[in-house]
Design brief:
This protein is an alpha+beta fold. It contains two helices and eleven strands, in the order αβββββββββββα.
């Protein structure tokens, strides 16, 4: 068993680039950035899927990150429990080289089934993005290797807007200031 694991890691590191991982938003596999606008307390569901077959004995490490001032990402549900693992924190895993002020979730895909993981399959589901600020939050998907060389493979922009009550209070305050000046 130990020899098989070592062999899998050796072959997997060579074939890591074969897995083409992508982000889907609310089950939409081809998200358009302008389609997603959230209020500061709302959440959106992200998934990790592959647009190419991931073969047996391949290993892929991935990291999904966001700027911590703009949002928060929680871990999801693994759709292939025998072939993949998810961890809640990239920093705990010792993955280096991520953008400053970013945090997120990361996982390892180690394929053992003879058929591999088919193209267009969702690998991780129900990853929750929660708004934390106002402005554009960029969620980035990296693949990474053991020495911390990270490559961005996909990203999505989520527009965050203030709550309606915040806008109403700002408008009301502006009216009061204007009234006092007269």
């Amino acid at each position: 068993m130990r020899k098989l694991l070592v062999l899998m890691l050796v072959f997997g590191l060579a074939s890591m680039a074969n897995a083409a991982l992508r982000i889907s938003v609310n089950d939409n596999k081809n998200p358009t950035d302008s389609d997603y606008t959230l209020r500061s307390s709302e959440t959106i569901t992200l998934d990790i899927w592959t647009d190419a077959t991931i073969p047996i004995l391949s290993v892929t490490y991935w990291v999904l990150v966001v700027d911590t001032t703009m949002g928060r990402i929680s871990d999801g549900v693994c759709k292939y429990p025998d072939d993949a693992v998810i961890w809640p924190d990239a920093a705990l895993a010792g993955i280096r080289g991520l953008p400053s002020y970013s945090d997120g979730v990361w996982g390892l895909i180690a394929v053992f089934s003879p058929a591999g993981i088919p193209a267009n399959a969702v690998i991780y589901d129900e990853i929750i993005f929660q708004c934390k600020g106002v402005g554009d939050a960029v969620v980035e998907l990296y693949t990474t290797d053991l020495v911390g060389t990270n490559t961005v493979v996909d990203s999505v922009v989520i527009h965050q807007i203030p709550e309606p009550m915040t806008i109403a209070l700002l408008g009301f305050g502006g009216l009061l200031l204007r009234r006092r000046r007269k």
